[in-house]
Write a structure and sequence with these properties.
The chain has two domains: about 1-370, Glycosidases (TIM Barrel, Alpha-Beta Barrel); about 385-435, no CATH class. The strands form four sheets. An eight-stranded parallel β-sheet has the order 6-5-4-3-2-10-9-7, covered by helices on one side. Strands 11-12-13-18-15-16 form a six-stranded antiparallel β-sheet, covered by helices on one side. It is built from ten helices and 18 strands. α4 runs parallel beside α5 (about 195-210) and α9 (about 310-330) runs parallel beside α10 (about 355-370). It has helices at about 1-10, 95, 105-120, 155-170, 195-210, 235-245, 265-270, 275-290, 310-330, 355-370; strands at about 50, 70-75, 85-90, 125, 175-180, 215-220, 255-260, 275, 300-305, 335-340, 370-380, 380-390, 390-395, 400-405, 410-415, 420, 425-430, 435. The longest helix has 18 residues, at about 195-210. The protein is α/β, with parallel strands linked by helices and about 450 residues long. The termini are far apart.
Length: about 450
């Protein structure tokens, strides 16, 4: 089974991960629940990608890279990075807002939307989860890590529609995107049928079109990993879900994945010194193409981090390459998980004040905002992309160190904004550099 995961390579959370979303009990304090996880790995040098084997969408991301394409999660304070959009994942849950038929408690949801707006953001993505017990269809293996009944599909779609009508009307013009369900391939988040989730997706699309047509609708996102109780849930859920959406003529504006990559759980990748994420994304795109989604649909990665432990250079490289890989492979938006005010042992790559990750995030945004990545290619471990318009390129080594012939004196800038003049040949390492070809 795990060989199949690597072969198809869809973006994922990893073994033992529990929660990826804010909880009812933590809303007032603005903190996240703890995750059950395996023991952290020792600090490692950055692994490399399969690189040349990656299959990319033609010319990568469609259109220019915008501020909103750099997303973030934050439940602990104003993000200290130049993100242009924020994702609220189950903050709060359906069960918390709608505890009984016709009864709504808006305190938590008002709190979170107000808080994100106070951060200074106007582009807000909200992801739904946790069916109220009174509305949920029973499941064979209940999992109440959120709330009782939270993993079941609605017994009646009218329950879901009524709830959505209240939400969309209340937050019209404030929440700009709605994600049908958070991690529908996690058994502790959803155990309903693909058919039911497709119907839920269509209902969400209909409600948004009726009450706030300027907002976008995302399909339920998917992840796959060596996660407790997940097994082959990805492969039993995602293909039939996509098939149903296709029959419904794709009632969404974007498709969604999660790309947690952690080679600790894939020994063959660790042995080869490779990172999973580019291969996982290309595998996800390969699956999507089987269902021929229309070109109008975007693809968003709404939750990502690399759970391997890296040194400072590795962390810079992970963050920079996360966004560069997204754009070159055809992912339109990427939401980093997450901004924190203190060290979080679950996350391999920290995003908080004083870390190397912050400078890398902001620098890649400065290099690419308003631009396009084109003509990306990997040859002998060296990956290069043109940044258009202009004559600059971005380059990094997929493993170790590579040499790039410059053909003359060029200005080279790293992720710390240190620039220098280089003649003839440049040693390129795992952390990307910007090269001005003028």
């Amino acid at each position: 089974m795990y060989r199949a995961l690597l072969r198809f390579g869809v973006a994922m959370c990893v073994a033992g991960v529990t929660l990826t979303t804010a909880q009812q009990a933590t809303a007032a304090g603005g903190t996240m629940p703890q995750r059950a996880t395996t023991a952290p790995a020792q600090a490692a040098q950055l692994p490399a990608s399969a690189g040349a084997q990656v299959t990319a969408r033609v010319d990568g991301k469609k259109g220019k890279i915008g501020s909103a394409d750099f997303g973030i999660h934050s439940f602990q304070g104003t993000p200290g990075v130049a993100a242009g959009s924020v994702r609220l994942a189950c903050a709060p849950t359906w069960a918390a807002v709608n505890p009984a038929p016709g009864e709504y408690d808006w305190e938590q949801m008002d709190y979170w939307v107000d808080r994100v707006e106070n951060y200074g953001y106007s582009d807000i993505l909200f992801a739904f989860c946790s069916t109220p017990e009174w509305a949920a269809k029973p499941v064979a293996r209940p999992d109440d890590r959120y709330l009782p009944g939270s993993v079941g599909q609605p017994r009646k779609m009218s329950y879901w529609r009524d709830f959505l009508e209240q939400v969309v009307q209340r937050y019209r013009g404030r929440i700009t995107s709605y994600e049908t369900w958070n991690e529908a391939t996690s058994r502790f988040l959803y155990q309903g049928s693909p058919k039911a989730m497709a119907k839920m997706t269509r209902v969400l699309y209909e409600v948004v079109q009726q009450y706030d047509s300027s907002a976008q609708v995302l399909a339920a996102n998917v992840q796959a990993s060596r996660q407790i109780n997940s097994r082959d849930w990805l492969f039993t859920f995602w293909p039939p879900y996509l098939k149903k959406l296709k029959r419904m003529k794709w009632p969404v504006d974007a498709l969604s994945i999660h790309s947690y990559a952690d080679i600790r759980n894939y020994p063959k990748y660790r042995k080869k010194g490779q990172t999973l994420r580019p291969d996982l994304i290309s595998g996800a795109l390969k699956i999507l193409r089987r269902y021929d989604p229309p070109k109008r649909l975007q693809i968003w990665d709404t939750e990502t981090n690399n759970l391997e432990k890296f040194n400072a250079r590795g962390q810079r490289a992970v963050v920079a390459r996360t966004y560069l890989d997204s754009f070159r492979l055809g992912i339109d938006r990427t939401y980093w998980y997450m901004w924190t005010t203190k060290f979080d042992p679950w996350m391999g790559t920290q995003m908080m004040a004083g870390t190397a990750s912050v400078a890398a995030y902001d620098q890649v945004r400065a290099w690419t905002k308003g631009k396009k990545l084109r003509n990306c290619q990997t040859e002998r471990r060296l990956t290069t992309c043109r940044i258009l318009p202009g004559k600059a390129i971005v380059a990094w080594s997929e493993r170790g160190e590579s040499k790039l012939k410059l053909g003359g004196k060029r200005q080279v800038c790293d992720l710390a904004s240190d620039c220098r003049k280089v003649k003839r040949k440049l040693k390129v390492r795992v952390d990307p550099v910007w090269i001005n070809r003028r």
